[in-house]
Amino acid sequence: MEFKRLTLDNLDSEHICCAITDKKGESGVSSKKDWLRKRLSEGLVFDKLDVRGKVFIEYIPAEKAWCPIVADNYMFINCFWVSGQYKGQGYANLLLERCINDSKEKGKEGIVILSTEKKMPFLSDPKYLKYKGFKIADKAVPYYELLYLPFSAQANIPQFKECVKNDLIDHKGWVIYYTNQCPHTEKYVPILINHLTSKGFAVQAIKLDTTEQGQKAPNPFTTYALFYNGKFITNEILSEKSFDKLLIKMKIC
Fold it and tell me: Among 57, 122, 124, 205, which residue's CB has the most CB atoms within a 10 Å radius?
């Protein structure tokens, strides 16, 4: 099987692996493609296995990353995903190798990626990354790890910006920060807002629309971050059922 790279010429016709198609009335794929279209001109790379499945890596120069980090002359991996029948066949290694080689050719000092202490939804597996040589550059509460793979001993060590050193914001009620970096947010954020409103909760959705906003966000995972009464709760994109389970766990009526 061959790998394919998204370009401005083939973006409209190619499927993006994290969302094959939109159902009637949805706009997640088109929103993600609009986001990608703008990022491609900033050096973003989206490499995927040429199949209709979730086998891809997406990365961008760290200076343009929608993540509150300082990682000059690094490449930042936005998303790295191999799922289903394609697991265990070496595709993750091949995708990572393509990213490493491309980054070296472009004169980067290394690669940096957001992960967690333990494997969590929507973030890359720290166990796999550390096995491949990534090291911890920095940490942010409650569970985030900034991992990096330097190409030389002299490479600078990336770090989180101060805006994510704690997990608090100055807002009451439920607050969702999100971007179109993931196609699923365009669907599930409105669903959750309607669900919260129907339960009588105060809710605010803050959509990050620019690189500058992403780099000043109060949470490292700018794709989706849910807060309650100023405290960070989860980075997991929630459906109505998963949110109701969260309420029970939090003992909120």
Answer: 57
pLDDT of residue 1: 76
Please give the Cα distance from 111 to 63 (Å, whole number): 12
User: Which residue is associated with the tokens 């609009």?
Assistant: 34
CA angle 218, 159, 47 (to 5 degrees): 85
Measured N-to-C along each axis, helices 185-198 and 240-250 cross at an angle, to the nearest 10 degrees, of: 50
Tokens of 78: 């936005």
Cross-strand bridge partners of residue 45: 59
Contacts 24+ apart (CB under 8 A), 186-194: 186/26, 186/27, 186/28, 186/31, 186/32, 187/26, 187/27, 187/28, 188/237, 188/238, 188/239, 189/224, 191/239, 191/240, 192/238, 192/239, 192/240, 192/243
**How far is the C-alpha of 185 from the C-alpha of 178, rounded, in Å?**
7
The string of pLDDT tens digits covering residues 216-226 is: 999 999 999 99
Question: What pLDDT is stored for residue 8 in this prediction?
Answer: 96
Q: Distance between CA atoms of 91 and 71, rounded to whole angstroms?
A: 27
